[in-house]
Amino acid sequence: MIQFQYERAAxxxxxINGLANSTHxxxxxxxxxxxxxxxxxxxxxxxxVDINRVPLKDxxxxxxxxxxxxLALNSQVADHPLILEKHPLLSQALNAGASAQIRxxxxxxxxxxxxxxxxxxxxxxxxxxxxxxxxGCGALEGVNRMHAIFGTSEQCIAVHPSDMCIALVALDxxxxxxxxxxxxxxPFEEFHRLPGNQPEKDNVLQNNEMIISVEIPDxxxxxxAHYFKVRDRxxxxxxxxxxxxxxTMDGKVIRDARLAMGGVAHKPWRLRExxxxxxxxxxxxxxxxxxxxxxxxxxxxxxxxxxxxKLGPNVIVEALKNAAGLV
Length: 327
Ligand code: SF4
Description:
Elements: E1 5-8, H1 12-19, E2 25-28, H2 34-39, E3 47-50, E4 59-62, E5 65-69, H3 74-79, H4 81-86, H5 88-96, H6 100-103, H7 108-113, H8 119-122, H9 164-170, E6 174-179, E7 182-187, H10 188-191, E8 210-217, E9 224-230, E10 241-250, E11 253-262, E12 269-270, H11 272-278, H12 285-295, H13 307-324
Helix pairs in contact: 5-9, 11-12, 12-13
The structure holds iron/sulfur cluster (SF4).
C-alpha cells in the first residue's frame, strides 16, 4: 500500500498551492488512469490534490471560440449541443474512446494527462525508460505491435493513447494552463512531446501548473469532418491507427484540410504536408490516396507493427472519404 497525503482544493489558486514544495504531488479528478497506475505501483505520488470542487466544468461560446473547462467530463463534452453543432469531430473522437462508464468519470484535463498504455510501462518487473529513466526500453526489441511509427527515439517508442486529443490537434485548439506566475496559452499541437532523451516527460506542463481549459477557434470544419478509428475490438480498445479529418469545401473542391493521426506517435501526429497537398484539389479517392502517401513519408516500423505502414494510409483515405461524403 502506497502512503500518500490527500487534500481537497476548491479554487485554482488553492490547487496550485497544493502542489508547492512537493515534486511528487499530483492532481486527481476522475482518477480513471492515475488510480490504476498507483494500484500497480507504476506511479507513487506522495500527495494527491483533489480538484473536483474547482469550478472548471463550463462549456461555453466566448468571442469566436468554444471554451471547455478542464474538469468537464468526457461524456458531457461529447453530448453538449455546442460541441455537436460546431465540432462534431470532437464528439465522434470522444465517443470512440474508452467505455461509457469511463467517459462519465474522466475529465478533459485527465484525458490529456493520461499515460501511454505500453504494456512494459505497466509491468514493474520489465525495463521501461518512461517509468524508470535509464532502465531501458522493453518494447524496442520486444512485443511492439501497438507502438509508434513516427517520431520515435532509441529511448522510447510508445504511443499517445487519447482519441480526444487527436481531434483537438486537428481543430487547431489551444490549452490554457495556470501556474504560480499566472496563465499561459499553449497550442494543442505543442502540448504533448516526442520522447527524445526524456521519455518520462509526456508533455510540456510544468510541475506546478494546472490545465484550466481548452479553446477551439470557430471554423468551418464542422460539416465535412470524420474521426475514423481502427482497433482490435469495437469498443473499449485503444487505436491501432486513427485519423481525424476535416475539410472546408466549395462544392467538390477542397479549400482547406485538417488531418491528425492517433496510434502512431508519442503525441497526436498532425499531417501538415498532406493537408497542404489537398488544398485546391477536387475530392476523389485518387486525391486522398496521394495525400496519404505524403502523410506516411518518414514512417518507420518495428518488428511487430509493420502492418501500420499499410493500415495508416488506408485509414487516412477512409477518414477523408467519410469527411467528404464519398461513402
Ligand atoms: Fe517504456 Fe516507452 Fe519503451 Fe514502452 S516504449 S517500454 S513506455 S520506454
